[in-house]
Amino acid sequence: MSNRLAGETSPYLRQHADNPVDWYPWGEEAVGRARREGRPILLSIGYSACHWCHVMAHESFEDEATAAVMNRLFVNIKVDREERPDLDHIYQAAHQLLIQRAGGWPLTMFLTPAGVPFFGGTYFPRSSRYGLPAFVPLLEKIAEVWREQREAIEAQNESLLAALAETLPKPGVQAADFDSGPIRAARERLEAQFDSRWGGFGGAPKFPRVSDLALLLASPEGRHRDLVVLTLRRMAEGGIFDQLGGGFFRYSVDARWNIPHFEKMLYDNGLLLGLYADAWALFHDPLFKRVAEMTAGWALREMRSPEGGFYSALDADSEGEEGRYYVWTKEELHAVLDDAEFAAFAPAYGLAGAPNFEGKFWHLWLVAGDPGGEVLERGRVKALAARQRRIRPGCDDKILAGWNGLLAEGLLRAGRRLERPAWIAAGQETLDFVRRVLWSEGRLLVTCKAGRARLNAYLDDHAFLLSACLESLQALFRPADLDFAVALGDALLDRYEDREDGGFFFTSSDHEHLVHRPKIAQDGATPAGNGVAAMALQRLSALTGDMRYAWAAERTLALYYPRLSEAPEGSASLLAALGERLRPSPLVAVRGPRAEVDVWRHGLSEESPRSALVLLLPNDVENLPATLAKPMADHVNAWVCEGVNCMPPIDSLEVLREWFSMR
After folding, report:
1. One fold for both 4-166 and 184-315+396-582?
2. Which of 178, 486, 505, 605 would you label with 44, given CA atoms 20 to 30 Å apart?
3. 4-166 falls under which CATH superfamily?
C-alpha cells in the first residue's frame, strides 16, 4: 500500500510512496500528530538525484523491520530539499551547530514536536561502517534520550535557537563607507587557493564555483581572467563535461575534473552556459563556443517540457549503478564505430590509457582539448546515438521557478553572445511559462508538475527570475518582461525585505511560521539570493528610474558590508553587487528603425560581459519608462548614461564599440 507521499508533486517524495515507513510530507498533519502524541519527529531531507539518498532508502526505508522501528518511535517526515529549501537551510544550519561539521544529503534530523532539532546526521548505514553507527540502534537510543533527558533537550533547544538567531547580521555601516577592498581581498584569496595545473580552487572534490569564477572574470587584472580561462578549459576537457551529449555533471570527485558525480542539475548548467558564453565573447576560444553549443543543445533536447519549462535534474544512477549510462568499454565503442573512427576517437577521448572508472570502464575526456575534425565528430554522433539506446537515468521532472530562471538567463545570454535566435526564443518562452503557470495574482509559486503548481516561492526564485528578465530585455526587448521584472522587484520589497535592518529574508513575510527565518549571504551551489537581488534591483532601478529598488540594494550591501570586509570568501554574488554599486554599469539605449537596430544588435553581441546594460529599442516599441523613451529618428542613436551623467547621443556603431573597448 502507498503511504501519504503518493499524492505529492515531488518525484523524490513519490519515490518513497511505497516504502513501509509511515511517511508524511511536511505539514500540519504530521506536526500536529507529533504534538498530540508527544513523539519526536524523524525528518529526512534529500532529493531525487542524490546517490546516498538512494542508498539509505534501499538499506533502511524499504526494509520492513527498520520501518517498523521508525513507525513505532517517531513521526516520520520526508522532504524534498528542492521544493522546500527553507527547511533545508534551517536544518542544515542546525546540523552544523549541533554536530560541528557540515551536513549534506540525505540529512537525517531528530526534532521535538515544535520542530526544534536535538540530534542529527546525514547518511546512516543499516549496519555500522564508515565510522557511522547502525541506523536501528541509533533510532532506539534517540528515542531513549527523548524519554529520559527531556530537560537537557529543552535547555539545548534554547541555546540552539539563540545561536540560529545570532546568524542574522546587524547593519554597521553607511553607503559612504563602501569601497572595493572586500572585492580585492576576495580575488586575492581565490588566487591563493587556485590550482595552477588543473584550474579551480583547492583539491578534490572539486566544484565549478561559478560565482567565484564570474567575480574573477570581471576583474580588471589580466592574471585573474587567466585563472578563469584555465579553469574553463580544464573543465571543458574533463569528464565533468559530458563529451558526447553536452551539459555538466554536478562536481568532480578528483582534482583534475576527470571523474564526476554523475548527476546533472539544471542550475549548474544554466550558470555555466552563461559563463562560457561570456568567456567566448572575451577570448573567442572555440572550445568555449563548443561547450555553450552542446550545453544549450542538451538542455533543449533532454530537459525541456512540452509546455516550455525545464525539468530539474537527471539522476546519477541507471540500472542500479552510478554512471552506468555514461561509461564505456573499448568493445562497446568499437561495436558502434568503424575502424577509422575508433582509431581517431580512442586516443582523443582517453581510451589509450588505463580505464579511469572502477578499473574496467572509461569515462570520456578530451586528451588534446581540440575535438575538431570530421571523423571525430562522426564518431561522437554515432557514440551518442548508441548511448541513447541504453536505459536512461531517471529524470526529476518537476519544474522549479528559480532554476528555470537560471537556465533561461543562461540561454538568453548565450543566445545574445553567440547570436542564436532559437536560444533567445527558448529563454523567453521559459519566462512566459513561469508567468503563465507559476505566477498568479502577483504571487510566485515554486514548483509544478503535470500542470499542478504549489508552494510559496522563495527569495532566490524571485531574484533569479528578475535577473533573467533583465537579460531578456537585453537579448530581445519585450515590454512584458519589463512588466514582470517590476512585479518581481515589488514582491521582493513587499514580502522579503527586512525594512528595519536591511537585506532579504529567504522566506516571505506571510510564509508558514518555522523555528527560524534565515537570511543567506553565502553562495552555495547557486548564488546567494541576497547578492543576486541586490545586483538585479540596482539594474532595475537604472532601467525604470524607481529609486526604491536602488535603496533596497544599498541597505542590503550596508547590512553585509562588515561581514564582507572581514571574510569576503564565499560571497562573490554580493561582492559583484558591491562592485556594481561602486561603479554602476552604464545604461545604453539604442533607438531607431528596426532593421538598423538589428544591425547594431549584431555589432554589439560580443561586447565585454557586464560592461553595460544595452537595450535595443526599435521605434515601434511603445510605452517605455522615461529612462528609455528616447526620441525616435530615421537613423539609430545610442544614449549612454553612467549614473546621472549622460553623454550626447552616439549615431555611429563603431564609435560606441570603441567607447566599450576603452572601459
Report:
1. no
2. 505
3. Glutaredoxin (3.40.30.10)
